[in-house]
Amino acid sequence: MILSIWKIQETELELLGILKNENWILDELATISHPQKRIEYLASRVLVQLLCIEANVPFSGIFKDEHHKPYLVGNCGHISISHTEFYCAAIYHPSKPVGVDIQMISPKLHLVAKKFLNPDELKLLQNDIQKLCLAWCAKEAIYKHVGIKGVSLRNQISILNFDTNFTTIKASFNTIEIVLNVFFIQFDGFSVGYTEESIPAA
Fold it and tell me: What gap in Å lies between CA 140 and CA 194, rounded to an integer?
């Protein structure tokens, strides 16, 4: 498994130059109008390209499946991507599903916490802004790991226990039930959560 985090400082033209203006890039870029979102999209794809180089595997582009989960063209490895206004993160595993999410620690989390946490989780986290951010990262990373569209972060992904170094998550998706460890990297007011191998639920 390879995980990388990149501070985005390049312009759109610089990023397009790295990606060689490939058709798969231009087709999806045409659907994104916001200038900053275009840069985030391109930076995250450049980062995956660099991960593939580091892993010594081919990089022929990134498409999305019917659940909008990104996958590598012509490569059986697994990827996950996340980006914000300032950073992007990507993870690669040669054979197993992975998930990653990056979030800024922000007071706004207090306003949206009820949308992604159930009442027991809200009580557990006690409105701690740092833990709210980690919980959101964890749930988003698990959502991406499983890759099924329409899953409710609040009702279908549950936190079993919580620690500032890692959290164990029980994720229930329809008839699928797994337990995942989500690990964290924290820096400069940002949190990154990433999954490791799933564990069969007891």
Answer: 9
> Torsion-angle region of residue 31: left (phi > 0), alpha (psi -120 to 50) or beta?
alpha
Domains 2-97 and 101-200 are alike in CATH topology: yes
Q: Which CATH architecture has domain 2-97?
A: Alpha-Beta Complex (3.90)
165's tokens: 């170094």
**Per-run averaged pLDDT (10 residues), the chain, 202 residues:** 95 92 85 95 95 93 91 92 94 95 92 91 86 91 90 87 70 70 90 79 54
Q: Give me the pLDDT at residue 172, please.
A: 66
Residue 195: helix, strand or coil by DSSP?
strand
> How many Cβ atoms sit within 10 Å of the Cβ of residue 67?
11
Dist CA 39 CA 83 (whole Å): 10
Amino acid at 149: K
Q: How many CA atoms lie within 13 A of 137 on its CB side?
A: 34
Q: Where are the domains of the chain?
A: 2-97, 101-200
Q: How far is CA 112 from CA 20, 123, 140, in A?
A: 39, 15, 14
Q: Which two tokens stand for residue 30?
A: 């045409």
The Cα–Cα gap between 192 and 63 comes to 23
CATH T-level fold of 101-200: Ribosomal Protein L22; Chain A (3.90.470)
Could you give the C-alpha distances from 202 to 3, 27, 164, 199, in angstroms and in order?
29, 44, 24, 9
